[in-house]
Structure prediction request, 298 residues.
Amino acid sequence: MTKEAIKNRYEFVYLFDVENGNPNGDPDAGNMPRIDPETNYGIVTDVCLKRKVRNYVQIKHSNKPPYRIYVQEKAILNNIHEEAYSAIGASEQTEADKEKNKRKGSADEVEKARLWMCENFFDVRAFGAVMSTGVNCGQVVGPLQFNFGKSMEPIMPLEISITRMAVATEDEAKKQKGDNRTMGRKQIVPYGLYKTEGYISASFAKKTGFSEDDLSLFWEALENMFEHDHSAARGKMNARKLIIFKHKDTLGNAPAHKLFDLVKVTPVHGEAPARKFEDYKVELIGKAPDGVEVIEKF
Prediction:
C-alpha cells in the first residue's frame, strides 16, 4: 500500500433532504420513491448513496489512480481484472480462458491483483468489492458502510401529470390529429428529511489501505456530492448535517448504536406538513462516552 491506513474507528450520522424530487426511485414500483409500506417512511438505499460518492470522486480526480472508480456505468469488470493481472506481471491468459472470459490465477497472483485493485481504485479501498467474477482478483471487505437512509417522518409520494409538446414519430402526430401534446408522469416527494448512519472500520481499512486522505475525500464527497447530481427527476437535494464520532483507537470505545442515539431530530412544524429543513431541530443529547470525539462538519 502506498499510504498508511487510518488508525481510528468512526461512526457518522448524515442528514440530507429532498424538495419536489425523487431521491431514490423503485423500478419495481413504476419508479415511485421508495417507502416502507408498513409505515410510509421514505427509504434511500445504501448503494444509491455510494453511487453519488463514487460519482463525486470520479469527477474530482478524472478517474485517475489512485482514485479510479471500479463500479461505474458500462464498466466491464473482467477487463479491469485482466488489467490488474497485466500490471502485476502475471503470465498471459490462455486462449481457452480468453474464450471463457476466465482466469483462476494462483493464490499469489490473486493476492497481488487484489492489492493492486485496492491501490488504484478508491471505491474498492472504501466499499470493498467481489472481484472473483470470472477473472479472479479475490474479494475485499470495505471499511466504509452505510445503513439505508430513512425519512424522519412518513412521506407522501406524488405522481404528477406532465405534457410534452412534441411527438417522436409521424404516426404519433397523425394519431394526435394536429395536437402534438403527449402525457407523461413525474414521481416526487414534496419534502423529506432523511437520516442515514455509517461505519468506518480501522481494522478493515488496514487490509485495503484506506488512508487519511481517502477519509478526507469521503467527508468532502458527503458535503458536495448533491451539487453534481442535480436533475429534473431528483429535484432539490441538499446535504444538511454530518456528525462524526471518532474513537481514540482501532477497536473503538463505545457501541455504535449508543452514539447514534445521541443525535436527536425533532419536528417543529406543528400540524402543517414539513416543507423545509428549518421545520426540524437537530441536536446532540447527552455527552459522548470517554474516548469518543464528536465532530460536526456542517
User: Anything to note?
Assistant: The first strand starts at residue 10 and ends at 21.
